[in-house]
Amino acid sequence: AATADSGIPAAGAEVAFQFLHSELVSFLLREQLQGGGGGPATVQQCRAQLSKLETMGFRVGQAYVEKMTKDLPRFRDDLEIVKFLCKDFWASLFKKQVDNLKTNHQGVYVVIDEKFSLLVPMARGKQYLDRCHLYTAFPCGLIRGALTNLGLRAIVTAEVEELPRVKFQIQLVQHSA
Amino acid sequence: AATADSGIPAAGAEVAFQFLHSELVSFLLREQLQGGGGGPATVQQCRAQLSKLETMGFRVGQAYVEKMTKDLPRFRDDLEIVKFLCKDFWASLFKKQVDNLKTNHQGVYVVIDEKFSLLVPMARGKQYLDRCHLYTAFPCGLIRGALTNLGLRAIVTAEVEELPRVKFQIQLVQHSA
């Protein structure tokens, strides 16, 4: 019934990327629960798992942006880089641009995505909420990695009040030159 | 210089999926090396890491195929399912179809991909070869999960002689009804 020529709307690799991220979070969550004997995770355990996810996100973000931008001219300034992140990077990974970008023009950027693709598979269940923000560590790393590759050091944090809406705060770290 | 309208060839989410898989393998490899005190991994350690990757692949494969096929008519037979896997599933995740599909018509299928997308990031270094097949466990799980969701139980194994060429063997398990 189905062949490659039949024009089936393919789910698309961005969905597989979502699912893989979701599995990764579940996996680290299970690992944490097993390690913790079933009780609530300690702060230290949370931090360890967050750090693993953030690191993986960072590396993926770096490699991905490297590939995306290798034939592009250099960006003029910080704002242009952040705009690239919010438009092209977002669209290519998440099939949409961000919904809102604000800046105080002093190195702080607030990025809002009303329906953040990586949180969509998790939005079905509530079991992830209050789980040490395990579900935003990877995306924060992803953004930080992308920015690092484009020459901007940043601290990236995320706030989720209701899945799958997410607010990222990007605080650029001053260059020392 | 770059905007969403400028027609930049986006790297594409399938590349992010590749990178994330690659990071996952590196992560489990590091975890194994740390756990093993730097010496060669024991068979038991290898099995544990393989099993984690295979399980994650299985879940992603199941969820992904569920999403891909939810509006499709049922498949007529096993061969049609395997063809769907080799054409549509492959094309949507890996941006190409498999290069060769053989069957003995008794439930064994051999699938060859000359340039398997998930192994491309690893094809750069040799450090992954001989590493307990860590790099094929996830794809084997992915295929097994996809087939399971379509009603076929299977044993899936992979052989890699030279990256990124891979030969998957799918052995269908007879239904007991």
UniProtKB/TrEMBL annotation, chains A, B:
<comment type="similarity">
    <text>Belongs to the TRAPP small subunits family. BET3 subfamily.</text>
</comment>
<protein>
    <recommendedName>
        <fullName>Trafficking protein particle complex subunit 6B</fullName>
    </recommendedName>
</protein>
<dbReference type="InterPro" id="IPR037992">
    <property type="entry name" value="TRAPPC6/Trs33"/>
</dbReference>
<dbReference type="GO" id="GO:0006888">
    <property type="term" value="P:endoplasmic reticulum to Golgi vesicle-mediated transport"/>
</dbReference>
<dbReference type="InterPro" id="IPR024096">
    <property type="entry name" value="NO_sig/Golgi_transp_ligand-bd"/>
</dbReference>
<dbReference type="GO" id="GO:0005802">
    <property type="term" value="C:trans-Golgi network"/>
</dbReference>
<dbReference type="Pfam" id="PF04051">
    <property type="entry name" value="TRAPP"/>
</dbReference>
<dbReference type="GO" id="GO:0030008">
    <property type="term" value="C:TRAPP complex"/>
</dbReference>
<dbReference type="InterPro" id="IPR007194">
    <property type="entry name" value="TRAPP_component"/>
</dbReference>
<dbReference type="GO" id="GO:0005801">
    <property type="term" value="C:cis-Golgi network"/>
</dbReference>
